[in-house]
Write a structure and sequence with these properties.
alpha/beta; 10 strands; 328 residues; Rossmann fold
Length: 328
C-alpha cells in the first residue's frame, strides 16, 4: 500500500528535500548527529558480555534472526518479547532492563530485527510488512516456550510501531508495552516528516544521512548509554532514504492497526524525547480499545530503558507485566 503525497513542482521539490531531511531523520529514533561523546574503549561496553546468551529465532520466512535470552533463576512468572528500535541491537537496548526483569521472575527474549544488529542483512531495509511478519512469527515461538504464563511484547521506538501493527496481524501477546513508540502515523504525522521521508526514499533511497550540523538530537541523559552505543560496531544512526521512508510506513501501519487492538496496552513517554511527538503518540494510544495506561516521565528521554531514571520505567513495566492474569 502506498501513501504518497502529490509530487511537488521541481524547484519546490528541491527546497522541500533540503528542509524536510532534518525532520525525517527524527523518524529513525537514532537519526541525526548526537551530541559529542568522549572516546571510550570498546571493552567497557555492556554489549560484549551480554552476547554470551545469543542464539537464533526464525523470522516469518524461516530466516534465522540473532536473539538473546535473559532467564530468571527459577521458574518464570511471565515472559517478555522485546523489540528494539532503529539502528539498535537487542543486547544494547534491553540488557540492563532485561536483567532487572529476570531478577523479578520474568523471562525475556529479544531479537535483532531483520536488517539490523548481528544479522547478515544489517543495513538492508526489509520493508515494514516484513518486520511486522517477523514479530508475529517470533511471538508464536515464544508462546510455545512459555504457554502457561502472560506474554507481553515490549517495543521501543521503531519496535513499538512494529509491535502495535503486529498486534492486529496475529501477534501472540496478552498485552503490549509501547515505549517512545513510532506509532504516530496517518493523520498524526507531521506533513514535513512525511514529505521528507517520501522525498528521501524517492530521490535518494540508497544515500545515508546523519543530519550533519543541521540535526543534533540527544536520545538520553545517560552518558554511559551514549558511549556504549557509540562504541558498539553494530549500532548505526546513518539511516538511508529508503529506511526513513520505511519508518513512515511503520508508523502508518501502527496507527492504522490501533483501533483493532483489543489487548491491554501500556504506553510510556519521556518529557525530554526529541524524536517522538507525545501528542501524536497519545492520540493513537487513545484510539486503541485495549489501552490501559499512559505513563509520562518528567525526567525521561527517548532511550527510556537506558536513561538515568530508567529504573522507574523498569519497575513500572515489570509491575504491569506481573499484574496480568495467566492466559486461559
Amino acid at each position: 500500500m502506498r501513501d504518497d503525497p502529490a509530487l511537488p513542482d521541481r524547484p519546490t521539490r528541491r527546497r522541500a528535500l533540503a528542509l524536510a531531511a532534518g525532520g525525517a531523520l527524527a523518524l529513525a529514533g537514532c537519526g541525526g548527529r548526537p551530541a559529542p561523546l568522549p572516546e571510550r574503549p570498546a571493552a567497557e561496553t555492556p554489549a560484549v558480555a551480554i552476547r554470551r546468551g545469543a542464539r537464533n529465532v526464525a523470522g516469518a520466512d524461516g530466516t534465522p534472526l540473532a536473539a538473546t535470552a535473559w532467564r530468571p533463576a527459577g521458574r518464570p512468572r511471565a515472559a517478555i518479547l522485546a523489540l528494539h528500535g532503529f539502528g539498535e541491537t537487542a543486547p544494547n537496548t534491553w540488557g540492563a532492563a532485561a536483567r532487572h526483569w529476570a531478577a523479578r521472575g520474568i523471562a525475556v527474549e529479544g531479537y535483532d530485527h531483520r536488517g539490523f544488529g548481528r544479522n547478515p542483512s544489517r543495513k538492508v531495509w526489509p520493508g515494514a510488512e516484513a518486520l511486522v511478519a517477523d514479530a508475529v512469527a517470533v511471538s508464536r515461538q515464544v508462546r510455545v516456550r512459555h504457554p502457561d504464563m502472560p506474554l507481553v511484547v515490549v517495543g521501543h521506538s521503531m519496535g513499538g510501531g512494529v509491535a502495535l501493527a503486529a498486534a492486529a496481524a496475529g501477534l501472540e501477546a496478552d498485552a503490549l508495552v509501547l515505549a517512545a513508540p513510532a506509532i504516530a502515523g496517518g493523520a498524526q504525522m507531521s506533513p514535513v516528516y512525511r514529505l521528507g521521508g517520501w522525498a528521501l526514499g524517492t530521490f535518494a533511497p540508497d544515500r545515508r544521512f546523519t543530519g550533519g550540523d543541521a540535526v543534533t538530537l540527544v536520545p538520553t541523559d545517560n552518558p554511559d548509554a551514549l558511549a556504549a552505543a557509540a562504541a558498539d560496531p553494530l549500532h548505526f544512526a546513518d539511516a538511508s532514504g529508503r529506511e526513513l521512508w520505511g519508518l513512515v510506513r511503520v508508523s502508518d501501519l501502527a496507527a492504522r492497526a490501533a483501533p483493532r487492538v483489543g489487548i491491554p496496552v501500556m504506553t510510556v513517554m519521556g518529557a525530554h524525547d526529541d524524536y517522538v511527538r507525545a501528542a501524536g503518540v497519545r492520540a493513537v494510544h487513545e484510539s486503541i480499545p485495549g489501552a490501559a495506561r499512559f505513563e509520562f516521565y518528567p525526567e525521561g528521554w527517548h532511550w527510556l530503558f537506558r536513561d538515568r531514571q530508567a529504573r522507574a520505567v523498569w519497575e513500572d513495566v515489570g509491575d504491569f507485566v506481573l499484574g496480568l492474569p495467566a492466559p486461559a
